[in-house]
Amino acid sequence: MMRKRKLFLSMLMAASLSVFTLAGCGGSREGSSSSTESATNTAEETADETDAAEEEGDAAEETAAGEGFEADATIGISLPWLGTQNWKEAQDMFTEQLEAEGFTALVQAADQKVPQQQQQIESMIQNGAKVIVVGPVDGTQLGSVLEEAKDAGVYVLGYDRLIENTDAVDGVVQFGSVRTGELQGQALLDGLKAEKGDGPYNIELFGGGPADPNAPNFFTGAMSVLQPEIDAGNLVVVSGQTDFTQCATEDWDNSKAQKRMDSLLAGNYSDKQIDGVLSPNDGIGRAIITACEDAGQDIPVVTGLDAENESVEWVWQGKQYCTVAKPTQDLVAKTVEIIKSLQAGEGMPAYEVKTNNGKIDVPIYELDPVVVTKDNAQEVFANDPDRLELLK
Amino acid sequence: MKTIKQVLGGDLRQYTMVLALAVLIIVFNVISGGRMLTPSNFQNLLSGNAYVLILALGMLMVIVIGQIDLSVGSVAGFSGMVMALAARDYNLPWWLAVLLALAIGAVVGAWNGFFVAKLGIPGFITTLGSWMMFRGLVIWISQSISVPAPEELRFFGAGYLPEWGPTFTGMNNSTLVLGLIGIVCFAYFQLKNHKRQGEIAGGVQDPMWAVVTRIVLVSALIGYFTWLYGSGRAGTSFPIPGLILLILIIIYHTLTQRTTFGRHVYAVGGNKNAAALSGVNVSRTYFLTFMNMSMLAAVAGILFVGRATAAGPADGTSWEMDAIASVFIGGAAVSGGVGTIIATMVGGLVMAVLNNGLMLMGVGSDKTQVIKGLVLLAAVAFDVYNKSAGRPSIIGRLFGSGEEKKEG
User: What domains are defined for chain A?
Assistant: First the structure.
């Protein structure tokens, strides 16, 4: 028995030792990840330089940083989902343009699920991506994984939506979201004057998905134009719902917007005409128009956003008054431009605006959207054969 | 073949999924050019899936008693949101906010348990109601806007064990110690078990060489994973959410296999009336199982919020489905009474590795979803087919033993 016990003990020790041996195989901790080591160091230096530059507060200085990376490096693109046309377009354009520039494009979509997106970003880091472009499902919920990316020396760019609540973001490319809202509000006013005779006009307001940081900005922008008119009595919000939380549409879900419009019409418009509705995007706009048709109302002036194919047709037919085009092309082109600048070792390009994201001031690369009505549709889409096809 | 069987310790069916898991990991590692078996990827795998695996722990017990809980995702989202709001708007210290979230889990669990146990409403209906209620409440209290969570929670959701001690080990020493504890415990229990087998008159004692080989093999495996987790970038280690999961696994494995309550759970699931007649308090078992489930949902919610750094209005959406899938892939029976904690964890890991591997290969979430659906169906169909026909599993066939026939 004693002998056997000794045997166990020796086996045990052997087992414990095997751990050390295995550890030995891997060599030093730094050694095990030697391939990424140099990249990490470079990035750290880059970060340091950028920090130093930012302290000086000179925009020109900030652009001169970084040592670049290989011309065929992997670029990760993490999109929130492919459920609307603009994201599907972004997927195709990123793949096409990045491959054309010689990069290896890794484009994935997260099906509107935050954990899915977190894991996708992590797998992009694993795949050795040098830049990760993120169109977040929820801009506040990616802190840990983006910091992981930063630690691995990866540049993080926000795409279309602000990335909040983390310092691990190098810049955001988007259309000015407050500006977009202003354009929507102004278009609604113009449309009412053009199509519904003299005021006062009965209107209703819709907002986008509250988890998307752009949605409140659209609403704020639009209200900056509409509120003075409401105060002056030229516009009447019959339901009295003028607060963003009242008007928001969970998840940008069209069917929820349609239900809300149904009940607004049933509750407030049995003896009134509705003249106009502020809609934050095309899908919701079409849902609103459908609800109005179902309720036997004349089609009101409805705004939109994204220039989705169906809405472009509706604008052309005069069913939807306008949409606001945020050409995905421009957004993707600007993003690819930044990626090229990073690749060449020229650091982040100069920017004009910074926005506080709760942790740091993030450089914003803002683009201007375009209002599309029946009158200027052919002009706007002159370079877009697919959409031009719809205007017939 | 007999030799291998003796080393593995008799019951081979439970190794089918483990084998599948190992094959998956190796195949993905080869296809992805070695990106699967890296320290950072495995750290991600655990911290990114800990919340689902924790839900699966509770879900296993719910399914074993022959019920289902659809509300876990919503409850996880709700407790996480309350925690974030309490910390932000009422300036509660983070630990108090965490306790509040756990308390909410307990209260919700008691609510579900009350309707199931005392009023006899099926768990499916009760929790369908709670699912809607708490999904609505999350959106209501958050006003659909994400709420940043206290910094300290990051530690629970995405933290690492401390670095200390000598550097010649070449890895995170906390992870090393954890691995050594694991090996020592495994060896201790194996030897104790062996000794007990010898003491039972007429019992079958595995030969000593088999036990020793088993210990060496498992030690090597633990050693490998210790190295894998410990040798990542400095500052990383076996992740904290993984450690929390590990502790919970040990607790729930013991609870279900070694305690009276655990036996009651299986008895009620196997045959409710027989259990009641043998003196098992059925409604108490129902109540406690549901209460436990919702508390684990709160834990999952806390970990997720910690990792995400903010609580969002959509947190928890369809998490219950991932948990239920893990349990069934782990071989639990839809009719109740069958299933183990360890097998459920393996089932959950199969899903997680599948997800992770397909992502590493750049497969889109649409196709991933299709593949996961097929795997779920295949795993359950395989299990049901084997049981109904009384056939040995593929593994059983491989080893050509007569033992499985008795089980059918």
Answer: 61-169+328-367 (3.40.50.2300), 177-326+372-390 (3.40.50.2300)
For A67-83, the pLDDT digits (tens) are 789 999 999 999 999 88
Closest by CA to A215, choosing from A251, A164, A187, is A251
User: Bridge-partner residues for A104, per DSSP?
Assistant: A74
Q: How far is B263 from chain A (nearest CA, A)?
A: 33
Structure tokens at A392: 């017939």
Query: Which residues, including other chains, have CB under 8 Å from residue B259's CB and lie 6 or more apart?
Result: none
All residues of chain B having their beta carbon less than 8 Å from the beta carbon of residue A22 are: 220, 223-224, 226-227
Nearest chain A CA: its distance from B53 CA (Å): 14
> pLDDT tens-digit profile of A213-255?
789 999 999 999 999 999 999 999 999 999 998 999 988 889 9
Query: Quick check: B41 and A122 CB within 8 A?
Result: yes
Query: Residue A107: enclosing H or E segment and its boundaries?
Result: strand A104-109
Give the domain ranges of chain B.
37-159+239-341+378-407, 170-236
Amino acid residing at A257: A
Rounded to whole angstroms, how far apart are CA atoms A8 and B188? 10
pLDDT in tens, chain B (408 residues): 567 666 766 555 567 788 889 999 999 999 988 889 999 899 999 999 999 999 999 999 999 999 999 999 999 999 999 999 999 999 999 999 999 999 999 999 999 999 999 999 999 999 999 999 999 999 889 877 889 999 899 899 989 999 888 888 888 999 999 999 999 999 999 899 888 888 876 667 778 888 899 899 999 999 999 999 999 888 889 999 999 999 999 999 999 999 999 999 999 999 999 999 999 999 999 999 999 999 999 999 999 999 999 998 889 999 999 999 999 998 888 888 989 999 999 999 999 999 999 988 888 878 888 999 999 998 888 777 776 655 544 444 444 443 433 333
Most distant CA pair in chain B, distance: 67
Is B37 in CB contact (< 8 Å) with chain A? Answer: no
Comparing CA positions, the residue from A173, A181, A214 lying closest to residue A328 is: A173
Q: B309 and A143: CB-CB below 8 Å?
A: yes
Chain A neighbours among B 317-356 (CB < 8 Å)?
Answer: 317-318, 355-356
User: What's the topology of domain B37-159+239-341+378-407?
Assistant: ABC transporter involved in vitamin B12 uptake, BtuC (1.10.3470)
Which chain B residues contact residue A37 at CB under 8 A? Answer: none
Contact: B309, A166; criterion CB under 8 Å: yes
Cβ distance A143 to B226 less than 8 Å, yes or no, reads no
Q: Which of A23, A106, A122 sits opposite B362 (nearest CB)?
A: A106
DSSP β-bridge partners for residue A371 = A324
- The model's pLDDT over A253-266, given as tens digits with 9 standing for 90+, comes to 899 999 999 999 99
Residue among B154, B215, B312 whose CB faces A144 most closely? B154
How large is the ipTM? 0.83
Q: Among B176, B215, B359, whose Cβ lies nearest the Cβ of A119?
A: B359
Q: Cβ contact (<8 Å) for A119 and B208?
A: no
Q: Using a CB-CB distance cutoff of 8 angstroms, which residues of chain B are in contact with residue A10?
A: none
DSSP-assigned letter for residue A272: S
Q: Which residues of B32-62 are buried (b: 16+ CB within 10 A; e: fewer)?
A: beebbbbbbbbbbbbbbbbbbbbbbbbbbbb
Which residues of chain B are within 8 Å of residue A114 when distances are taken between CB atoms? Answer: 308, 312, 314-315
